[in-house]
Specification:
This protein is α+β, with helices and mostly antiparallel strands. It folds into three domains: about 100 residues, 3-Layer(aba) Sandwich (Rossmann fold); about 60 residues, 2-Layer Sandwich (Dna Ligase, domain 1), CATH 3.30.1490; about 210 residues, ATP-grasp fold, B domain (D-amino Acid Aminotransferase, Chain A, domain 1, 2-Layer Sandwich), CATH 3.30.470. It has 13 helices and 16 strands.
């Protein structure tokens, strides 16, 4: 038990972050969960670890959210505000600014939510990024399209994952799309589409430095799965591989450039087919979705949610933090939207199966092994079987929302 209990206000627009709240409660701290009314009654919350649940219709509507949290402070002395979902990062930052609490402020939070801001900041610090342009001045856009060959990606600056990305093949298509967007067009960033393999690095950060990182690769780029449908596969990489070391180095460089003082991150990188170079795509100041935290834990023994909570509490209490021992293993996940409400995966009997994703209208399995090659072989085989036995195709927007 902590000699000085703290009160953490956790924002969660979706049901996630249970281990984060459990770790805080186990350490003797108080936990207040602020979530949307539609999720307040969900059975998945670790209610034994939550002192109070406060529900609002919308966690992002201003000034309502500021009024509500300020009212809460009349009865509760809140020590920290934590965003458990990507969509809550900016809201939490605004609330910290208003209440003068520690953590990411509004400007720094943009480095981890605004795809234009993170590209500009990373590029200025020497991080390699795909050629990009703001969507403000039309002369600048004409110059970009004259210099940078298509196809291009038009990306929402503040959406999560691959939501809302449009692939454009010529300038006429681009200008038509801007006409459709109207006043919303400045909330997008234009970027050259670089075919290649996509990877992610999931990290813990303390005092601005990466203290733990696990590099993983997608079997298909998330944009392709998002737009074309299919089975989502991610697996940790062989730690002895040169590419893994290159990814870990690029991840450290990106996080230093973006300026995160502490917490958990999920950064994505692309290895381009054309030149073999690694390009920084984006970085979120939160734990990765789609059960990635479970994959990392099965591979390494490190629970990203719990260790993030311990880092935050130690910082506030001015106490030392020590990372637990890291296991040298490998794991991967196979996941898809399913035609069946509760798919039967009992036919997947390999001893490496360590977890079944229990979620309606989803099929998902996590496998773990000391061998990276074994994990790759199993996830490839399972992805093929999932596509025949379970896979359902939904609209792109619904697909990515369901898997987050």
């Amino acid at each position: 038990m902590s000699p000085q209990p703290l009160t953490f206000l956790c924002l969660a627009s979706f049901v996630k972050g249970g281990p984060f709240m459990q770790a805080l409660k186990e350490a003797g701290h108080r936990v207040i969960l602020l979530t949307r009314e539609k999720h307040a009654g969900d059975e998945a919350w670790p209610r034994e670890s939550i002192d109070h649940i406060v529900a609002l219709p919308d966690l992002h509507k201003q000034p309502d959210i500021t009024y509500a949290v300020s009212y809460m402070t009349r009865g509760w002395k809140i020590d920290a505000i934590e965003a458990l979902d990507d969509f809550d990062v900016e809201t939490a930052a605004d609330l910290r600014e208003h209440l003068r609490l520690p953590g990411l402020g509004s400007s720094l939070a943009r480095h981890f939510r605004d795809k234009l801001a993170m590209r500009q900041v990373a590029h200025a610090q020497g991080v390699r990024v795909p050629p990009f342009s703001h969507v403000f001045n039309y002369d600048d856009l004409r110059d970009f399209m004259a210099r940078v060959p298509p196809p291009w990606l038009l990306k929402p600056r503040s959406q999560a994952s691959s939501m809302g990305i449009r692939r454009l093949h010529d300038s006429e298509q681009f200008w038509r799309t801007l006409d459709e967007l109207g006043d919303e067009q400045s909330f997008y960033v234009l970027e050259q589409y670089l075919p290649g393999e996509v990877f992610h690095v999931d990290s813990l950060v303390k005092d601005g430095e990466v203290i733990f990182a696990a590099a993983s690769g997608y079997s298909r780029p998330p944009l392709n799965v998002y737009q074309d449908g299919g089975v989502f596969v991610s697996r940790t990489l062989d730690r002895t591989d040169a590419l893994t070391q290159e990814l870990l180095a690029a991840n450290r460089q990106a996080i230093r450039a973006l300026g995160l003082p502490r917490g958990a991150t999920h950064c994505e990188f692309l290895k381009a087919h054309a030149d073999g170079q690694l390009y920084f795509l984006e970085c979120a100041a939160r734990v990765g979705g789609a059960n990635i935290a479970d994959v990392v834990e099965h591979a390494t023994g490190i629970n990203l949610w719990r260790e993030w909570a311990r880092i935050e509490a130690a910082h506030l209490l001015l106490e030392p933090y020590t990372l637990p021992p890291v296991r040298d293993g490998h794991a991967g996940i196979v996941l898809c939207l399913a035609r069946q409400e509760w798919p039967d995966t009992s036919g997947y009997t390999d001893p490496e199966v360590v977890q079944c994703v229990h979620k309606a209208w989803h099929a998902g399995l996590i496998v773990a092994s000391p061998s990276a090659a074994r994990v790759r072989a199993l996830t490839d085989a399972y992805a093929e079987r999932f596509s025949h036995e379970f896979l359902a195709i939904a609209s792109p927007k619904e697909s990515v929302k369901q898997m987050m």
